[in-house]
Design a protein that fits this description.
single chain; about 150 residues; mainly beta; 4-stranded antiparallel beta sheet; 1 helix
C-alpha cells in the first residue's frame, strides 16, 4: 500500500530556516524592536500503521484530540482516503500561548487498495484517539499463482 501525500519543499525549507534561527536564539528574519514572532500552525498528517493478517488489512491512524464526527473515510477508484480536521483551541481571555508546536487544521491521507482488498467490506472504529480501519480481504480477488514455462 502506498501513501500519497502532497509535499511542499519550500514550506519545509522555510520551517527549517525558522527552526535554525530560533535554535540560536535569534530570528532569521529581522523584526522591529518589541515585535514578537508570529504564531504559526503547521500542516499535518496523522501517522499510521498498516498491518495485515489472513482475513484483513488494518490501518491504525493516530488522531489525538480529533472528534469522531470530524473524520471522514471514503473509497473511490482503488483508493482509501481518510480526511478530517483537528481544531485549535479558542483563545480565552487572559490566556496567552507562548509556544504552539502541535499541528492543527485539515488533514488527509490516501492509500491505494491491494488487489485482494474488498471495497464493500470496510469497517472502522474510533477509540482513545486511534482510528482503526478494517479492510477485509476477498478470496476471489486474490491473484492466483501461475507458473509460466519459458521456451
Amino acid at each position: 500500500m502506498n501513501a500519497l501525500a502532497h509535499w511542499n519543499q519550500y514550506r519545509e525549507l522555510e520551517a527549517l530556516h525558522q527552526s535554525l534561527g530560533s535554535l540560536f536564539s535569534r530570528s532569521p528574519v529581522p523584526r522591529p524592536e518589541g515585535q514578537e514572532e508570529p504564531m504559526r500552525v503547521a500542516d499535518w498528517a496523522p501517522v499510521v500503521d498498516i498491518s495485515e493478517d489472513n482475513q484483513e488489512y488494518l490501518i491504525k491512524a493516530e488522531l489525538p484530540e480529533v472528534k469522531k464526527e470530524d473524520v471522514k473515510i471514503t473509497m473511490a477508484d482503488g483508493m482509501l482516503t481518510i480526511t478530517g480536521d483537528r481544531k485549535f483551541e479558542k483563545e480565552e481571555n487572559g490566556k496567552k500561548y507562548h509556544r504552539v508546536e502541535r499541528a492543527y487544521g485539515s488533514f488527509g491521507r490516501s492509500f491505494s487498495l491491494p488487489d485482494d482488498a474488498s471495497p464493500g467490506k470496510v469497517t472502522a472504529d474510533f477509540k482513545d484517539g486511534v482510528l482503526k480501519v478494517h479492510l477485509a480481504k476477498d478470496e476471489k480477488a486474490r491473484s492466483q499463482r501461475v507458473e509460466v514455462s519459458v521456451s
